Amino acid sequence: MGLKEGTRVPRLVKVAGLIGLVGVAATGCTTDEVLRFGWPEGVTPQAESMRTLWTWSVIAALAVGVIVWGLIFWSVAFHRKKKGDEELPRQFQYNLPLEMIYTAIPFVLVVVLFYFTAVTQNYVLAKPANPDQKVNVVAFQWNWEFNYPEYKTPDGQPVRTVGSSSEIPLLVLPTGERIEYSLSATDVIHSFFVPEFHFKRDTFPHPDKNNQDNVFQNTIEREGSFVGRCAELCGTYHAMMNFEVRALSPDKFDRYMQLRTQVNPATTQPYTAAEALTQLGKERQDCGELCEPYAVTGVPFNTERTGGAPSGQQVGTK
Length: 318
Hints:
Layout: H1 2-26, H2 31-35, H3 45-78, H4 96-124, E1 133-140, E2 143-152, E3 158-162, E4 170-174, E5 178-185, E6 190-194, E7 199-203, E8 215-219, E9 224-230, E10 242-248, H5 250-260, E11 263-264, E12 269-270, H6 273-283
Parallel strand pairs: 1-5, 4-10
Antiparallel strand pairs: 1-2, 2-3, 5-8, 6-7, 6-9, 9-10, 11-12
């Protein structure tokens, strides 16, 4: 009996290990995806901070799970009732040291997780003074306006971009610079959400009734085009209320903004976002898809069906 028991446990361990390896391989995940435990890839240091917290939280949970599962299997394998046993196994329900141990360990785990959660949250929500760039985000049914208060067009108005029936609104931003977003809405509650930022925040139409901070900051680490969405059910065409973040290197962004603050000789009007990107693509051979004049992450929809307007303006202006 003892020999059979001695060989049975290692065999179970081998089978369990094989099942685990097959399970990991069957997911089709890359090594990086496995190490992230399903956490999506982000493009900001704030997103990476959240990913780190998630990874170590999962590792801690797995460690606790392994210990608990090990104790369960150990009890099942070595302390089950055998034929001929007459006495009850040794009882531990009034073992004070043991009870203190399994009370103290979870308490310590909770305290440690709370500490690192608070540290990560403070980092993600930090708003240092004097950010490199500022952008005002205005949400309305069912569209977006982005305006840059520090950049002025020849007529003295802030550079602004608003979606239309033919264009998804583009939020053009620089990489490697601290960006401050100020959120608002003109009609109902919407929500500013960029999956690659790993960040979502609601936009409220009445600042005096806003129960959360409407300003946050981040830094985009790499160039690219990233879809943005409204993540708060806001009416009939909520599902179509998308925008696109276009992240450019600082030199490209500076040139883009230089164009946005000038008059386009072809139209005698300030450059629109699409016109500025088109001109930038002509000037820069390394721009490629980043200088596409229109969104590459989705398609527009007929904004004549909108129920609101940006900053009191008519829908469709740019």
